[in-house]
Amino acid sequence: MAEERGKSKLFVLKPIIERWPAVARPEGYVPFKTKLFWTILCLIIYYILTQITIYGLSPTTVDMFAGFRAVMAGASGSLVHLGIGPIVTASIILQLFVGAKIINLDLTKSEDKMIYQGFQKILIIIMIFVEAIPQVFGYLSPSDRFIAMVGGEFTARTLIVLQLFMGALIVYLMDELISKWGIGSGVSLFIAAGVSEAIVTGLLNWLPVNPNLPLSMRNPPAG
């Protein structure tokens, strides 16, 4: 049911939104060199995160959505496994609710826009857990060694969820940093980076399709 006319009920979150950690906006003009520096730095950090695997994940785990990871700027089994999924999902949900007047916010008003942007940040955090928990408790299984180390399967899966949360949170903060201090949008940059990495890796991958058989015409390179 649409909210009554007047201020949105989301204004009750205003004290939280005002204290929510955020990347500070530049006070004036940002030189191109500064924008380029932050953009390249975030891109390097992103590529590093794609190479850091989730600690304790079973090596036999099969990612059911591996084919979509590049499009979502994610890397299977890494800290950025979720990619930009939580950011995009939260943005779409909020836009739909505001567009359908389910959430009564007038984005032409600065105060309403502040509430919108602040609630979107909170929703991103929620969506990280919404996307991470089903995957970890579904098919991202911890290794037996990790389960024995932490003293239980539930604890092991919870720790994997926290790793995914930290990775997704870093991606979200870098997206905000690029949007304010860098060039363009962090979401677009990470998508381009993920797709580019997949293309380059595929072209240069000389491992055979079937690793158990020697390289031949019938067993060509996977790239």
Q: How would you concisely characterize the structure shown here?
A:
The protein is 55% helix and 0% strand.
Explain what the structure shows:
With 223 residues, the protein is an all-alpha fold. The chain has helices at residues 14-19, 32-50, 85-99, 110-136, 144-150, 153-181, 186-204. The longest helix has 29 residues, at 153-181. It is globular. It starts with 13 loop residues before the first helix and ends in a 19-residue tail after the last helix. The model has no long low-confidence stretch (mean pLDDT 87).
CATH class: Mainly Alpha
CATH topology: Preprotein translocase SecY subunit
Contiguous helical run count? 7
CATH architecture: Orthogonal Bundle
- Termini separation comes to 52 Å
Poorly predicted tracts of residues:
none
Order of helix and strand elements from N to C terminus: HHHHHHH
CATH homolog superfamily: SecY subunit domain
Radius of gyration, in Å, reads 21 Å
Task: Give the integer mean of the pLDDT values.
Answer: 87
**Sheet bearing the most strands, described?**
none
Shape: globular
Output the structural class: mainly alpha
Domains counted in the coordinates: how many?
1
